[in-house]
Amino acid sequence: MDEVAKARMAQVLHHRKAGLNLGDPVVPPISVATTFHLPEAQGAAHYYGRSGQPTWDAVETQLAILEAAEVVSFPSGMAAISAALICCLKAGARVMIPSDGYYVTRLLGRDLLQVYGVEVVEVPTLEMVAAEFTGFDVVYIETPSNPALDVIDIAAIATRAHAAGAMVIADNTTMTPLLQRPLDLGADLVVAADTKAPAGHSDALFGHVAGRDAVLMARIREWRRQSGAVPGPFEAYLVHRGIETLEVRLARMCENAAVIAERLAAHPAVSGLRYPGREADPAHTVARRQMVNGGFLIGFELANEDTAEAFLTNCPLIEQATSFGGVHTAAERRARWGDAVAPGFIRLSIGVEPLEVLWSAIEAALPSGKS
Ligand SMILES: Cc1ncc(COP(=O)(O)O)c(C=O)c1O
Question: Is 235 in the pocket of ligand 1 (CB under 6 A)?
Fold first, then answer.
C-alpha cells in the first residue's frame, strides 16, 4: 500500500468519530427506515428512503475518503456502471468500450445504449492506446481488464480523450481505490463493483460511482432517485464492515498472488500466465506506474478444457465460483461464459489463505507436466 492509501485507510477507520455524541454506537446502525420525521419539508438530512438514508451515508463516507471524491452508492457494480453511462450519454452520442472487458458491460452497450440511439464502438483494451477519440463523447476503460488482465495507461488515455472532447469513465473493480486511483490520473468518473474486494466475503452486491464534478455527481445521484436503483441497508452495512478490513485483506491477497504467480509461471503445465505485477508481464511497465502492486488476480492457461476443469475440481482450496476479490481463493474457466479466451484459460482470484498451505493445494492439483 502506498502512503496516500495508508493515510486514507486510517481515516476510513475513524470517520464516524467526529460526529459521535456521548453513548452513540461506534459502528453505524443498520437503518431500515424508509420514512423520516418531517414536520417541515426543508432542512432534513433525509426525507425518503429512495433518496438517501444513514447506512448509505456511512459507506459513502468511507468510499469518498478512499476516492478523495464524491461518491454515490448503488445496489451492484452494474447499477453503478449503467448510472454513469446513462448520465454521460444521450441519443446520438458515441461511446468507446473495451471489447475484452467485463462482458455484461458490453451487453449493456448492445441491449440498452444502442437501442436508445447511442453508438457503441468496441475496441480491445490494448488498441485503445492508439485509437482515435475524435467524435467520441465517452471513452470507457477497464484496467486491468477482466479477465485477460491487460493494462491501459489511464493518464495517457485521459489526456488524449480530453483533448478530443471526450470524458473518461474507468472501471476500477479489479484494483479498488487502495491499489489504483484513476481520478488522480485524470479519469472523470470511477465505477466499481464493491461486490468484490471491498465487501470481500462474497455475501453482498454493491457498487459505486465516484467523481469530482459536483454537477455530474448530482445528476448521478438524481438518476439513482429516479431509477430507484438503490442499495439495501443490510448490504450497505456489510460493505461498511468489509471496507474496514480491506487494506489488511488486500495485503495478504496481493502478497500471496505475487508469489503464486511466479511459481505458476515456472510450472511446466502452465502457459500464457498474466499477472501485471510480474516483471516479465507485458503490462508491467504501465502497471508499475499506476498500480500500487500487481493485485490479487492471475490469469493462466492449462492445456485444454478438461485439464483446466480437472485442476479446479481437484484443488480443495479453490472455490469454483464466478466472482473475485473474496477471502476465499476462487477460480473458473472464463470460456464457459463466452469470453474470448482459450478453453483452458483460468482466472484465479487469490484469497487470504496462508500462502504455503494454499500453494501446496494448488501445486498438488496441477498436472505434473505438459498435458
Ligand atoms: C470488472 C467488473 N465490473 C463490474 C462488474 C459488475 O459487478 P456486479 O456483479 O456487482 O454488478 C463485474 C462483475 O463481475 C466486474 O468483473
Answer: no
Q: Where are the alpha helices (DSSP H) in 43-198?
A: 54-67, 77-88, 103-108, 125-128, 154-163
CA distances from 247 to 111, 264, 327 (A): 37, 25, 12
pLDDT at 1: 83
Question: Is there an atom of ligand 1 within 6 Å of 173 CB?
Answer: yes
List, in order, residues 6 or more apart from 225 with CB less than 8 Å away: 50, 51
Measured in Å, residue 123 CA sits from the centre of ligand 1 at 19
176 lines ligand 1 (CB under 6 A): no
- What is the pTM (predicted TM-score) of this model? 0.97
Q: With 80 as the cut, is the pLDDT of residue 322 above it?
A: yes
Atom of ligand 1 nearest to the CA of 146: 1
Q: Is the CB of 207 under 6 A from ligand 1?
A: yes
Is-contact 87 216, C-beta < 8 A? yes
Tell me the mean pLDDT in the region 66-72.
Answer: 98
Rounded to whole angstroms, the Cα distance separating 52 from 36 reads 11
| Number of C-beta neighbours around residue 343 at 10 A | 17
Q: Using alpha carbons only, what angle is made at residue 136 by residues 130 and 142, rounded to the nearest 5 degrees?
A: 60
Counting from 1 in the atom list of ligand 1, the atom nearest the Cα of 206 is: 10
User: Is the pLDDT at 370 greater than 70, yes or no?
Assistant: no
3-state helix, strand and coil shares in percent for the chain, rounded to the nearest 5: 40, 15, 45
Pick the residue whose CA is nearest to atom 16 on ligand 1.
102
